[in-house]
Amino acid sequence: MDSPPILFSYTTTLKDNTTKVTIYPILSIDIVPNSLFEFLCDEYNLEIERGETLPHFETLSMKQFIRHWFDKSVVGIMILGENPITNHKHRIWEQECLGIFNIKPNFPGKRCSHICSGEFLVNAGIRGKGIGKILTNVFLFWSSHLGYESCILNQVFETNVSARKLWESGAFNFKRVGKIAKSVYLKNYDDPVDTIIYGKNLKEEEEPQDKQGATNIDNSSVRFDKIKHYLQTGKYHKDATRQEKSRLRSSSSHYSIMDNKLYMKGKEVISNPAKQLEICQILHEKNGHCGINRCTSLVSEHYHWMRIKDSVTFCIKNCKLCKINEKQVAARIIQPVLKRARLNENLQQVIQQAQQNLTYADAAATALKDYKQTDMTTHVQSYLDE
């Protein structure tokens, strides 16, 4: 059985061209901190209570929310900046979590398993920044990368003007494939409202692009396969446009074929994401669990693919030995801090006892005795267990 495609995080800027945001793929709920779940659940329930865009009457419990959003779904969460959601301490999600979407099968069973659907939610306090457009852009690309061929958005209420305007715009060109008359009762409306069903073909879906048109998500596998096919056969792939043919002719001069492998300027081209991570892991371990920059240099000496550093970063952050070493380093850093905190605590005891008419010598002796009896190892271990 083939392994599922590997999705990489996507970093871009909002429409102010300054504010950086990152969308992280969530393939397992285990990496999502509880505090973020709580915020997202509250945001979704707030949208339910508004009664304008969702079919629910009653708000969802945390368990219901997680099942509704994450069960059999791939989820993308947009975070301000480039600080991963796994670094969850001291995070203010109301200010840092900008939006979320999910990708899930639209129908049960395998006969229609090539059709997906999805749901979108933008932080109610941070709207009008182009967040919905970025979420939709990445949703479409990831859906295509996951193997879906078509997308259907089932419940877009006619009164949801902003969503309709976005999806019908030239940026996405969703088509109206159906309409259900008087299908939903909304808050502040006396009569039921129509529901519009949108559809889109994902086969020709391109990669998300930033404001300058530069590709930020790596879809190099398809591009490299096209170059390899052109070099081996001298023919263009089926349905190639004139522009694609021109790009193939231009880029093929930098590539060559050896032993049925594609090379660029003497470096082997690796298009399979799983193989990319395997190479990163091998070189990382063989070179003493080296850091990101060193490992990136080692990989770049012999191999080529887009965004090598992202692959290396993903590999190192998931290295079990490196995680253990991080905890050991943290223990060495925190131990002096804990000692100072304990000394300050005993100093306060000295002052309090002195104020109770004890002699300074007696108070100091008592505090020193208490301090020596304290097992600092216990403090460090409790920190590591957090």
UniProtKB/TrEMBL annotation:
Gene3D superfamilies: 1.10.340.70, 3.40.630.30. It comes from the Eukaryota. GO terms for cellular component: nucleus. InterPro entries: Acyl_CoA_acyltransferase, GNAT_dom, Integrase_H2C2, Mito_N-acetyltransferase. One of its GO terms (molecular function) is acyltransferase activity, transferring groups other than amino-acyl groups. Residues 29-203 form the N-acetyltransferase domain. SUPFAM superfamilies: Acyl-CoA N-acyltransferases (Nat). Pfam families: Acetyltransf_1, Integrase_H2C2. This is N-acetyltransferase domain-containing protein. It comes from Candida verbasci.
